[in-house]
Amino acid sequence: MDIVGFLKSQFICHLLICYIFIVSGLIINFIQLFTLILWPINKQLFRKINCRLAYCISSQMVMLLEWWSGTDCTLYTDPESYHKYGKENAIVILNHNFEIDFLCGWNFCERFGVLGSSKVLAKKELSYMPIIGWMWYFLEIVFCKRKWEEDRKTVVQKLLNLRDYPENFWFLIHCEGTRFTEQKHQISMKVAEAKGLPKLKYHLLPRTKGFAVTVQCLRNVVSAVYDSTLNFRNNENPTLLGVLNGKKYHADLYVRQVIHILIPFKLERIPLEDVPEDEQECSTWLHKLYQEKDAFQEEYYRTGTYPAVPTVPPRRPWTLLNWLFWALLLLYPLFQLLINMINSGSSLTLASFAFVIIIASVGVRWMIGVTEINKGSTYGNNDCKQKQK
């Protein structure tokens, strides 16, 4: 192992990275709190400021993937669609198979300049999570409790609020609702059998109601749907902890702005207005899309590639520069404090510092644990429980 690789694997480096992320994140959350006074005065200015503040947080995560881990992200797409990325509002459908798929989605957003304004449909519990969850609150992220009867009115209102958003944005949505596991897949396919739907090999059945409402509310605001399928070469099993350790992965992301649901493997652009607005028809449309996604996944496992032109969008320097700014701002006072504590020779002071380090380590491990598949939601199990009652 070279010296750089050795340093990347050291706990002290991880602790410093997490210190920068946590302290800068809380500072930014505090600044965001004060931007609330702008909302009744100038809502669009509030939004533009919070897009840039949110970028200061989310770009640190992308920096870990791009610059620290050095993970390669190859984009497979139609060259005629490539120039439109980042220049129009879009709904981005993502598969949900890996612990860092959200990070790769953010990386995709960053390469095309929409990371700060990107939106998601997220579970309500995440809104209480410091830093990222609080950041999302100021970004007007759509949160749901996963109980559609309770969620529908709130989700519709939140989506309608985005119709006059001043920045280009991508709305990222995991239609499967939860990460893929073998147990959840078995349950999902039992539901497919009961409903007379074709079974999927590599995906869970999509949850169609959230997607249908998103299409209805953002029609004439969003230009297209991007169907995105993420895989990692050589059966890699990427984790956020692996990224933090500097492990390099090789991601392949297939993005179809050009979707034709009826003819597999035919690429033909369908703008959002061609996606059915009726909820039942939209549900059928989405199920057909996932059947097609399954076929593309089968093709990838067979050939190791996607049926599109590979390209590597250039890395932008802003994620690294943003992280270096916060590192210079926050590490100097930390080292000064540490030197003063050592010079004081106080056992109580040193013990207090060690206690803070332990608490910080536990907090960091908890935040990483949120992304782990084995710590995922039981959402996929609810249907089975309800059927057994």
TrEMBL record:
Pathway: Phospholipid metabolism; CDP-diacylglycerol biosynthesis; CDP-diacylglycerol from sn-glycerol 3-phosphate: step 2/3; Lipid metabolism. Residues 90-212 form the Phospholipid/glycerol acyltransferase domain. SMART domains: PlsC. The chain crosses the membrane at residues 12-41, 323-342, 348-368. Keywords: Acyltransferase, Endoplasmic reticulum, Lipid biosynthesis, Lipid metabolism, Membrane, Phospholipid biosynthesis, Phospholipid metabolism, Transferase, Transmembrane, Transmembrane helix. InterPro entries: Acyltransf_C, Plipid/glycerol_acylTrfase. It catalyses: 1-octadecanoyl-sn-glycero-3-phosphate + (9Z,12Z)-octadecadienoyl-CoA = 1-octadecanoyl-2-(9Z,12Z-octadecadienoyl)-sn-glycero-3-phosphate + CoA; (4Z,7Z,10Z,13Z,16Z,19Z)-docosahexaenoyl-CoA + 1-hexadecanoyl-sn-glycero-3-phosphate = 1-hexadecanoyl-2-(4Z,7Z,10Z,13Z,16Z,19Z-docosahexaenoyl)-sn-glycero-3-phosphate + CoA; (4Z,7Z,10Z,13Z,16Z,19Z)-docosahexaenoyl-CoA + 1-(9Z-octadecenoyl)-sn-glycero-3-phosphate = 1-(9Z-octadecenoyl)-2-(4Z,7Z,10Z,13Z,16Z,19Z-docosahexaenoyl)-sn-glycero-3-phosphate + CoA; 1-octadecanoyl-sn-glycero-3-phosphate + (4Z,7Z,10Z,13Z,16Z,19Z)-docosahexaenoyl-CoA = 1-octadecanoyl-2-(4Z,7Z,10Z,13Z,16Z,19Z-docosahexaenoyl)-sn-glycero-3-phosphate + CoA. CDD domains: LPLAT_LCLAT1-like. GO terms for molecular function: 1-acylglycerol-3-phosphate O-acyltransferase activity. It is an enzyme of class 2 (transferase). GO terms for biological process: phospholipid biosynthetic process. The keyword Magnesium does not apply. It comes from the Eukaryota. The keyword Membrane applies. Coiled coil: none annotated. Belongs to the 1-acyl-sn-glycerol-3-phosphate acyltransferase family. PANTHER family: 1-ACYL-SN-GLYCEROL-3-PHOSPHATE ACYLTRANSFERASE DELTA (PTHR10983:SF8), 1-ACYLGLYCEROL-3-PHOSPHATE ACYLTRANSFERASE-RELATED (PTHR10983). This is 1-acyl-sn-glycerol-3-phosphate acyltransferase delta. The lineage of its organism: Eukaryota, Metazoa, Chordata, Craniata, Vertebrata.
